[in-house]
Structure formats: structure tokens, C-alpha cells
Amino acid sequence: MPASSDLSDRPGCVQWPLAQPWPLQTNELRLGVMASGEGSNFEALVTACREGPLRGRVLQLVVNNPGCGAMARAQRLGIPCALVDHRHHHSREQLDGALIQTFAASGVDLVVMAGWMRIVTPRLIGAFPSRLINIHPSLLPSFRGLDAVGQALAAGVTLSGCTAHLVSEDLDGGPILAQATVPVLPGDDRSSLAARIHRQEHRLLPLAVALAAARLRDRTAAAADPSAPAGPPSG
Ligand code: GRF
To answer: Which atom of ligand 1 is nearest to the CA of 116?
Structure first.
């Protein structure tokens, strides 16, 4: 079978994290997105909000690279886009301070790092506790950091995929929200494998956002009434 075949939609090739219904969403989520490159995950989130199944609205995109694909997509989709260029900031903390200010001004509840190619600091993580989500193109905890797809190919794995997780100070090491798998096919190169993973990311990320919101809601409810029975697992 040629490496370009898309097996990702065949039963058995995609393993969603739980055989569960879409997480119950009571409130419309107010989302911020950070992107550095193409922005296909950003667009997938906007589409999931506009056409379902995600009950939310992307209020603000922030990019760090002028002229990147994500910026052009924001213009086409009519989403406000702010440029926060890391080259104009002296430190990571200062860059993250500018991000916090931008998202605070747009009043977002959750922030999604959809291909944000900068390391974030405790300052940003602390501003959005359990509300900062990242998508990574490997089955974490395998192949953290840069070039995860190349790392997977070099290791010779036959199964790869993507992981959406909460961001912690441990690079690509925060609590996992959801994962999807894809096969690695004979003859795959970075580009064919990355394309197969990307298709799964676009499905996984909206689900992960809903799961993160459900976790927050369950925690808030438990804090308000510690005697209440725990709700169903939310991922
Ligand atoms: C994705 O593969 C994501 O996992 C990684 O960066 C890539 C972004 O792709 N963090 P895009 O810009 O959303 O198309």
C-alpha cells in the first residue's frame, strides 16, 4: 500500500482516548489561540466552533511571525489577530507578559497553543492555570520537543499520532487530555507522516478543548460542594 494512503479514518487505526460522548458543554467557551506557522489547527478550531461540535468562539489569535499562514487565515476568517513578535522582546518572560495582556484584553477563558514554536514561561502558565492547552505531533511522552515527526521516523516506530495536553513547566510534559494514533507506513517521510498526523490533530484539538473545559467545570463544582458525588471522568 503506498505511503500516501490515508488509513487514519479506518476503524482500528484511530484510537480516541475514551469511548465517550462529546463532553457536555453548558457555556460558550471564549478561546484565545497562539500560532507561529501555517495555522491549520487554528482554522480547525474556528471551524469546530462555527460548524460544531465545539460550543465556543475564537476571540483572539496571536502570532509571533509576521506574514505567517495563521495570520492570513485569521484575515480570511474574520478573527482578530495580534502580532506579538518575539524579536521585539528582551526575554521570554517579557514576551509572555505581552501575550497575557493581549488575551486579558479580549477576555478569553482558555488559550490554545496551536503550533506555537516558542518555549513558554511560568508567567504565562500561571496566568492560565489548567487553561493553557498544547497540541504536539507525537504520542507523548515519546518524542518531546522539536522535530517530533523526524524523531519518530528515526526511532522506527510503527505507530505515531498526536497529543493534546495541558501545559506545565515540563516541556511537552503536562497532563494529557486526549491522543489520536496514526500508522507509520513503509516509505513514509516527514511530510507524509506529518500530513497524516495533522488530519488527526484537527479532529483532536476541539475535543481536547471541550475536555479541558469539562475538567475545569468538574473541579469548580467539587470545590463548591466537596460532599457531592464525583461526576463522570472527563478525560
Ligand atoms: C502541528 O503539527 C502541531 O502539533 C505542532 O505544530 C504544528 C502546527 O501546525 N505543535 P499548524 O500551524 O496548525 O498547521
So the answer is: 10
Instruction: Say whether pTM exceeds 0.85.
Output: yes
| CATH number corresponding to 27-224 | 3.40.50.170
Cα 220 to Cα 39, 224, 225: the distances in Å are 32, 6, 9
Atom of ligand 1 nearest to the CA of 114: 13
Digit-coded pLDDT (tens) for 140-172: 999 999 999 999 999 999 999 999 999 999 999
| Least confident stretch, 29-33, 82-86, 213-217, 221-225 | 221-225
Residues annotated as part of the active site: 136
Kindly give the distance from the C-alpha atom of residue 41 to the centroid of ligand 1, in angstroms, as a whole number: 6
Q: Residue ranges of the domains in the chain?
A: 27-224
